Amino acid sequence: MPTYKNIIESIDENILTITINRPDKLNALNSLTLLELKKAIENAYDDHLVQGIIITGAGKKSFVAGADIAEFTELTELNGRKFAEKGQEIFALIEHCLKPVIAVVNGYALGGGCELAMACHIRIATENTFFGQPEVSLGILPAYGGTQRLTSLVGRGLALEMMLTGEMIDAQKALQAGLVNHVMPGKEEAMLKAKEIMSKIFKNAPLAVGMVINCVDSAISKTEDGFQVEANSFANCCKTSDFREGTSAFLEKRKPDFKGE
Ligand code: COA
User: Fold this and answer.
1) Which CATH fold would you assign to the domain 7-202?
2) 66 within ligand 1 shell (Cβ under 6 A)
3) What does the DSSP 8-state code read for residue 23?
4) From atom 1 of ligand 1, which residue's Cα is the shortest distance away?
């Protein structure tokens, strides 16, 4: 496993846990942290030992309190666009990963932190979590995909209220709004919940799991006809030996032994 400065990686039962580790800065995403996150995700794409990924934050207070504001002094029109596109690219890498990615959101998820959580496939928050997109208070706007993903997750009204006022919502409100899947008392419980969900996903055919993620992505990206992507993916599933195995196992009243092929 590569060594990183601002993230910690660990692997257990085929789950890679990536912990953003700058607790003294509430895990703010500076450029090195983003680069390391990108490398870790890229490696996970190709690592056969990794079947799923959990992303969380170090410390008790924060998941990620946003992009690192200390680096904002460098931003101009030209490199501002690059800054946004680089973040969008890394978060798209997470969103398009065909292995499930779960965010364990343990505290502040603000700005780029809220956007990072939203790029993950499933979100589990702890009771002390607050989500927010406070960028307008700094004179900018959410630019790591936040304007798009927040609207798609919670709807136009709440998304606009959050992004225009910059105010935070707590974990219970996020649950009501569909921004998170579950709220757990603390980090330990949230990690256990994430692992429980992963183990349920791991029982299913990996190629079909990846194709579901891809189909759902196409519902959001609008660059492809999602119904066509779905029909093509279904056809592709029908070609796999896991499909034969899944149906045979059901008919023979036994557990399937999926091979991911
Ligand atoms: N970028 C850089 N540093 C950050 C940061 C960010 N997004 N968020 C927090 N920090 C740093 C603080 O500067 C402080 O560093 P210091 O101890 O060297 O001064 C440290 O993290 C602790 O933060 P602090 O503000 O003292 O904690 P708090 O409990 O009083 O407040 C927040 C917590 C999250 C409400 C507050 O830190 C905050 O508003 N952060 C910025 C959130 C934001 O606007 N994010 C979007 C950026 S686009």
Assistant:
1) 2-enoyl-CoA Hydratase; Chain A, domain 1 (3.90.226)
2) yes
3) G
4) 68
Q: 245 falls in which pLDDT band (50, 70, 90)? A: very high
pLDDT, tens digit (0-9, with 9 covering 90-100), for 14-23 = 999 999 999 9
> Would you kindly state where each structural domain of the chain is located, as residue ranges?
7-202, 206-251
| Residue 54 burial by Cβ neighbours in a 10 Å radius (0-12, 13-18, 19+) | buried
Question: What are the tokens at 3?
Answer: 């060594």
Q: Is 25 in the pocket of ligand 1 (CB under 6 A)?
A: yes
Strand residue runs (E) in the chain: 7-12, 15-20, 52-57, 62-64, 101-105, 108-110, 122-126, 130-132, 169-170, 182-184
Q: What is the mean pLDDT of residues 126-136?
A: 98
Q: How many CA atoms lie within 13 A of 247 on its CB side?
A: 7
Q: Could you list the active site residues?
A: 115, 135
Residue where the block lists tokens 């990615």: 101
Compute the distance from residue 46 Cα to the ligand 1 centre, in Å. 35
Pocket probe for ligand 1: among 25, 141, 170, the residue whose CB has the most ligand atoms within 8 Å is 25
Q: Whose CA is nearest to atom 43 of ligand 1?
A: 66
Angle between helices 226-238 and 206-221 (to 10 degrees): 170
List, for residues 187-215, the tens digit of each pLDDT value: 999 999 999 999 999 999 999 999 999 99
Ligand 1 centre from 70 Cα, in Å? 10
Q: What is the pLDDT of residues 59-93, one digit of tens each?
A: 999 999 999 999 999 899 999 999 999 999 999 99
